[in-house]
Design a protein that fits this description.
Helices cover 30% and strands 25% of the residues. The protein has helices at residues 3-16, 20-27, 130-134, 136-147, 159-168, 199-207, 234-254, 260-270, 286-296, 326-337, 358-367, 394-403; strands at residues 32-33, 60-67, 90-99, 104-110, 115-117, 124-126, 153-157, 172-176, 180-182, 187-189, 193-197, 212-214, 226-228, 278-281, 305-308, 311-316, 319-324, 345-350, 370-376, 386-389, 404-405, 409-412, 421-425, 431-432. The protein has a 7-stranded mixed β-sheet with strand order 1-14-7-2-3-4-15, with helices on both faces. Strands 19-18-23-20-22 form a 5-stranded mixed β-sheet, covered by helices on one side. α1 runs parallel beside α7. The longest helix is centred in the middle third of the chain and has 21 residues, at 234-254. It starts with a helix and ends in a 9-residue tail after the last strand.
């Protein structure tokens, strides 16, 4: 889907907008969905929106969801073919990591037929059903728990939003390697080369799962000359979607998206009062959107990293599904898992003569940290709780420190074996917070 393009086009627009008042007015039009309790707390604390505030530049994972919903679209559009206007299936699920400090943006496509345990239900289904089963919160928790990744923010867009984005950039030029056709979606492109796709054609192009192509020397008017293109699976469609996202962002830059007047026009087109098509989570703030827009106004689109999950076909309960190859998937997941509390491995050490680490361990695990070892510190007269870390685990140390009360000392050491950080509990320790402070002391 073009959700990533829509998100980055929008944040570029609000980030480059002339005046915070105009930004607040635009953002206030966007519907919000209450999923805060399902989101990872790191990176989702409320930031002030006043200008000049030094907000966090933490890496954030966005779960971007395209909804298989045609509400608000012309009834004569081919999008309505065999479609229930009220469907809640997700047409695409994409995890996007935006890391301002590293100047990195990466996207991971999650196949809609991926077989996953549905969060809180005790049974499994295809991931594209999770939202319909329990709402956006269930989808967030399902993806987060199954892949072991934190989800900090949620963005949802329907078909109408897709069409508006493509329209806002005056169509998207795409390299068509060979003719492609899918009558079930109204898709028919009879020539190859760079073709500027209009909104309806673009939507059909990124959605097709059973495309045909013209046999060599075939006649486009002869139905028998159209043959199967590819192997008809989600992975091919995911690749088309990722390529289309990049093409959309390139088009937006070419159309002057970094010009304030163009930004305002595009943002206004995306935020239609009568038929809202973009939904945000209830934690993301105007300030965070402005920060992201400012960070990526000069970002080079070709630098976006693209990942896909390794999967195999299977049949479960008569359903064609995809199973994750977990070991092979780990290299693709590592970048997105960074920042997860469960990914912070803590060695817990008692630094007081009368203290015990049992209660501290339980508190850390309730917060989501992984306690991998426990024991006694070198001495028992530690006055102030200390987080010891190597240079490679600086981010993990900062994350842990933000949860500890009172703020601990941070001690850089040459190396820590078997854990990311060591927590030496001192006499001042008073507990582990349910949510992090904005920064560690």
């Amino acid at each position: 889907m073009v959700v990533l393009a829509g998100l980055l086009v929008f944040v570029a627009a609000v980030g480059g907008a002339a005046g915070l008042g105009m930004v607040k007015s635009q953002v206030s039009q966007i519907p919000r969905v209450s999923v805060g309790l399902s989101l990872d707390l790191v990176g989702t604390s409320v930031h002030p929106d006043e200008p000049g505030v030094n907000r966090s530049s933490e890496a954030l994972n966005f779960l971007l969801v395209g909804i298989d919903n045609a509400a608000g679209i012309d009834p004569d559009s081919p999008i309505h073919i065999d479609r229930d206007v009220n469907t809640l299936l997700t047409d695409s699920v994409i995890l996007v990591r935006i890391d301002p400090d590293a100047d990195r943006v990466a996207m991971l496509s999650i196949p809609r037929d991926l077989w996953v345990p549905i969060a809180g239900k005790g049974w499994s289904e295809r991931v594209n059903t999770a939202r319909g089963i329990g709402g956006p919160g269930t989808l967030i928790e399902t993806v987060s728990e199954f892949l072991g990744v934190p989800v900090h923010h949620y963005v949802e867009i329907n078909f109408a939003g897709f069409l508006r984005i493509v329209s806002a950039v005056d169509g998207v030029p795409v390299e068509i390697a060979q003719p492609i056709r899918d009558d079930s979606l109204g898709l028919r492109i009879e020539q190859s080369g760079v073709i500027t796709l209009d909104p309806d054609t673009a939507l059909a192009y990124v959605r097709t799962r059973r495309p045909l192509t013209l046999a060599e020397g075939g006649n486009p008017a002869n139905d028998d000359d159209w043959v199967r293109l590819g192997v008809w699976n989600d992975l091919e469609r995911n690749q088309r979607q990722q390529e289309f996202m990049v093409a959309t962002l390139k088009r937006a830059v070419e159309q002057g998206i970094r010009n304030p007047l163009t930004l305002r026009r595009v943002a206004n087109e995306l935020l239609d009062d009568d038929n809202p098509s973009i939904t945000l989570d209830d934690r993301i703030t105007v300030g965070q959107l402005v920060d992201l827009g400012d960070e990526f106004r000069s970002f080079q689109v070709d630098q976006i990293e693209r990942y896909r999950l390794p999967v195999v076909d299977d049949t479960i309960d008569g359903k064609q599904v995809l199973l994750l190859l977990e070991e092979e998937a780990q290299p693709a997941l590592e970048f997105f898992q960074a920042g997860s509390l469960a990914g912070v491995r803590v060695r817990l050490l008692n630094g007081t003569s009368s203290g015990t680490v049992a209660g501290v361990e339980a508190a850390l695990e309730r917060a989501g940290f992984s306690v991998v070892d426990r024991g006694n510190a070198a001495r028992f007269d530690v006055a102030r709780t200390t987080v010891r870390y190597s240079e490679a685990a600086a981010n993990e140390a900062q994350t842990l420190a933000r949860y500890l009360e009172p703020p601990p000392l941070l001690e850089l050491v040459a190396e820590i074996e078997g854990a990311d950080v060591e927590l030496v509990v001192g006499a001042d320790y008073s507990g582990v917070s349910e949510s992090p402070r904005d920064s560690a002391s």
